[in-house]
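Spend some time on this chain, tokens included, and walk me through the fold:

. . .
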Amino acid sequence: MEHITVSNIEIEIVRKNIKNIVLTMYPPKGRVRISAPLQAKSDTIRLFVVSKLAWIKQNQRKYEGQERLSTREYKDRESHYFQGQRYLLNVIEVDAPPKVVLRSKTYIDLYVRPATPTAKRHEIMNEWYRAQLKAQIPELIEKWEQRLNVQVGDWQIKLMKTKWGSCNVQKKRIWLNLELAKKPLHCLEYVIVHEMAHFFERHHNDKFHSYLDQFLPNWKQVKTELNKLPLSYAEWNY
């Protein structure tokens, strides 16, 4: 893999069969990767990076300042989040199928068999989060299909490390990050609207932002709130 250094920032270069240069940043420290056309000259790539330096440095500072949760061990009184609220985990060992119960405004009960390993507890919690999202998403999509007069062809939930959502414009298919189950409901709605706005404009340009201004006037505030919320611990390997 190629590397260049611009203003003391090391940048990975990946050459692909694409038409345009694409910049991507990865948590937790804001690692920068450039996807470039196969025949793109090194000077062209460097000039592109120079033009994006202010944006890169600004977002790297955001990554550095963002709160991150430590590794979750799924033990009693450990903090876990659901719809933007902090809960304490209460682990109940019982010889029965596992389940998760939102017991009150304070506790999430995790029922597991005795000696269930941490990895399995993590899997059980994630499946519960997935089920909660599956219950929330259809109503929001239907609401915005009616408002925007478009149809979502399909939607899926998956765990993503660098995006809150993504979409396939041609198939009108959207993907939503499993981590959104932990965020306030209006943040989930913002991401859904954001991805549906791409049905009208593929790129994050002024036209796209004008659609967001029209559809969801407070989207900038919600985006800022979402990106300031604590991120879950993850092994960021690439």
User: Anything to note?
Assistant: Residues 234-238 have pLDDT under 50 and may be disordered. The chain has six helices and eleven strands. The longest helix spans residues 118-148.
